[in-house]
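## tool: complex_structure
## caller: assistant
## args:
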Amino acid sequence: MTIVTRFAPSPTGYLHIGGVRTALFNYLYSKHTGGKFLLRIEDTDRARSTPEAVDAIIAGLRWIGLDWDGETVFQSKQVDRHRAAAEQLLAEGKAYKCYATPEELTAMREEQKAKGLQPRYDGRWRDKAPSNSQSGQPYAVRFKAPQEGETVIHDLVQGAVTVANAQLDDMILLRSDGTPTYMLSVVVDDIDMGITHVIRGDDHLNNAFRQYQLIVALGHAAPAYAHIPLIHGADGAKLSKRHGAVGVEFYRDNGFLPEALRNYLLRLGWSHGDDEIISDAQAIEWFDITDVNRGAARFDMDKLTALNGHYIRQTDVARLVELMQPFMTAPLTDETRLRLKQGMPGLKTRAKTLKELAEVSQFYVRPRPIPLDDKAKAILSEGGRADLAGMIPALSGQAAWAAPALEAWAKAYGEQAGLKLGKVMAPLRAALCGSTASPSMFEVMEVLGKDETLARLRDSASA
RNA sequence: GUCCCCAUCGUCUAGAGGCCUAGGACGACGCCCUCUCACGGCGUAAACCGGGGUUCGAAUCCCCGUGGGGACGCCA
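## result:
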C-alpha cells in the first residue's frame, strides 16, 4: 500500500509555525515510506479565506522546502462532492434534517452549561418528522451518530483512545444554507484523495471520533490517525498570535535559514537518540511517526537561534552573501560584494541570523567615512587618535599587504613603540570597523586593501 | 463544568524493569584559546510532580492525587 499523507491548512492569514511542523511530519513520513504528500487548502470558510492567505501558505511551504505531490486541492471546489455525500447519508437514513434555529441551540447550550453539563446537541430532531409548520423552513442536515457503545481510535502517536459514543452528539453535515461543514468536507476529501494517514495537531483528536464514524457510515475504511501534540509558547499554552512569532514569514524575515527551522521543528517532539544536527537525508531515513512524543513541547527561540548559527557557519561563503542581501541597507557593488566574499569566513562565526550577519558586515560595505559607535569613539579620544597618527606612516611603507605580514608588522610596531598588541589593535579596529567587535583585524586590513585601510585610518586620525 | 491527552534539568530531549551515581543539546556560570567579539575546546550547577501498589529490583508497569494542555460552534 502506498502511503498518502496530506497537509490541510485553512488560509487564515499566515502559515502557522505549528502548521509547518505538522506539514514537516507529514512530508517526512511520506518520504520515509516512499509515499505521497499532498496539499489541500481548507478554504470553505468563505468569510475568512482570502487569496493572499492562500499565497502565504504556498510561499511559506516553498520557502521551508516542503514540496508536495500533485496539484493543490482546494476544498471549496469540492462542495458538490460534499453535498452528494450528505444526500447519500440522508437517503440511507444515516442523517436527518434538523429544523432547530441557531438561537434555539444557543439557548439549549446555555442551559446545559448552567447545569454543569457538557454542551451538546440533544437530538431533538433525530427521530422527528417535520410538522406542517416546519416543512418549508430551512434545515440543517445532521449525522445520526451511534448513541451507545464506544468508539476507539488506534492513534499512531496517542495510542488507543476510547470515547463513549454518548459523549458525541449529532454533528451538522450541511448548514441550513446548504453548505457543507468542515467535518463532512475533510472526510469526503480524505476519501477522494486516497489519504491513508491523517497526521495533524492533537487539537483534532476529539474530531477524529466523529470523522471515523462518518467515514464508516459512508462505506469506507478509516485512515490511520496520528495526532501530534501542539507546540506551546514559553508560557506553556498553545502557540498563538499573542506569543508573537507564529507565522513562518517572521523567521524568514528575521534571517533564519529554512534548514535550521526544519531541524529545530523536527526535534520538537521527536528525537533520534542524542542527535541534534540532522540532515534532510537522515531525517527521512530516521523519521517514523510512531516515535513522536505525546507531550507538547515549548518553542524555544534561543535553541532555534543557536541552531541557525550552526547552519550559517556551515553555509558556503557565496551563498551567504546572496542570502544576506535582503538584510543589507544598500545594494552591493562589485567591490563590496568581493569584500564580503573574502571577509565572510571571519564574519559568519559572528552571526546567528542573516540579519545579524548583515549587521556585522556593514563596515565592509559602508562608504567612508564610516560611522563610529560610542565605544570606538572613546577609544580614539582616549589616546587612540595619537596612536593612529603614529602608525599611519609606518603602515604606508608596508609592502606586503596580507594578514600574516600585517600581523608581523603590528607586533614589531608594538614592540618598537612600547605598546602591547591589544593597544595597537584597538584603535585600528575602531577606525576601520567603527566598533570594538570585529573579525581579526589583519584579515580585515587584507580584505579592505591598503588604500582603503589607510584612507579610513586618516579619516579617524584627523577627525 | 464535562470529555480527552500529557508529566525526566529553566527549555528540547535520551531512557522500552537491572547498563542510571539519570546521558546529550540550548541557555547559565567558570576556565582555556585570543588583537576585540565570536567560533572552538574543557569544566560546573541543574531533573525522574506526590502518594500508594506490582517486583528480588522501577524514571521505566498499575492505581489515586496534583499540576499542565486540548476539545466541547450551522469555525476550520
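## assistant note: Chain A has a mean pLDDT of 92. Chain A is about 50% helix and 10% strand. Handing back to user.
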